[in-house]
Known about the structure:
Layout: H1 12-19, E1 26-29, H2 36-43, E2 47-51, H3 55-60, H4 62-67, E3 72-75, H5 82-88, E4 94-100, H6 105-108, H7 134-140, H8 143-154, H9 159-169, H10 175-186, H11 197-208, H12 211-225, E5 226-236, H13 239-252, E6 274-275, H14 285-290, E7 298-304
Parallel strand pairs: 1-2, 1-4, 2-3, 4-5
Antiparallel strand pairs: 5-7, 6-7
Helix pairs in contact: 8-9, 8-11, 9-10, 10-11, 12-13
Amino acid sequence: MTAARPHEPVLLAEVVAGLAPAPGETHVDGTFGAGGYTRALLDAGANVIAFDRDPDAIAEGQALVAEAGGRLTLVAERFSEMAEALAERDVDGVDGVTLDIGVSSMQLDRAERGFSFQGDGPLDMRMSQAGQSAADFVNEADEGEIADVLYTLGEERQSRRVARAIVAARPITRTGQLADVVRRSLGYREHDKKDPATRTFQALRIHVNAELDELERGLSAAERVLKPGGRLAVVSFHSLEDRIVKRFLRERSGATPAGSRHLPENRPAAVPSFEAVTKAVRPSGAELARNPRSRSATLRVARRTAASAWAVSKGRGS
């Protein structure tokens, strides 16, 4: 691997240490993006099957496919579909799965993709570049539905006020336009530490891409494809995601809270399918200085046992 390296993903050294890739192993990178984790796995001698629903990521990853000399397969699918995609390729199991949840730097930095208000662009936010866009949602949904999405997925405490302002300003077609509507509704001042539009943009992005449902299904898929002893590494960027990962690993490792005299004992629903679950790992001061976007990142790693996978999660239905 000698070509110029793309933007370094967060917690790269910690993810690689948790996955411990070895020559000849097969690993899944469920969120290929700009290929940072995949490249590190290839550098360690592993074969990689990488997934991304973003057509841009798949197209731009072809150079790395050529460079990898047959050790990298790119799949244009959601990572929640990894079990079916691996079966179609006669892959019985893998030695590692890594998931980097949320929006990629490549998507954020391109104004035409509509993920960020840092540069004005069309209000899109679709990772797959298909289906309902953020503009479709804010212009077609009723006020109550918009408020619910902002409150639940953006943890916006003044969601009703923001939703009312959005409906009054319709049609909204640009990221800058939406950001201004949110700021005016919440009384934003330029010296405020955090732009209040951040929560609304987060909520809309998660909703449009059904990200929490995808995460739940993806974790169950990883459980099904990992061999005994296989490693799972998940990087999340906000509390909603990390809560799902933490709960999944706690349940699957049999670490559910013990009962009390007031509540019945909380026994695991099945034999633990994961073990050696690490404590949350967060970026070092050096990484924060180098990459401020890593500020909210949290890594959790676990090892697959020989037990059967639990019943498949039905997700959130979003």
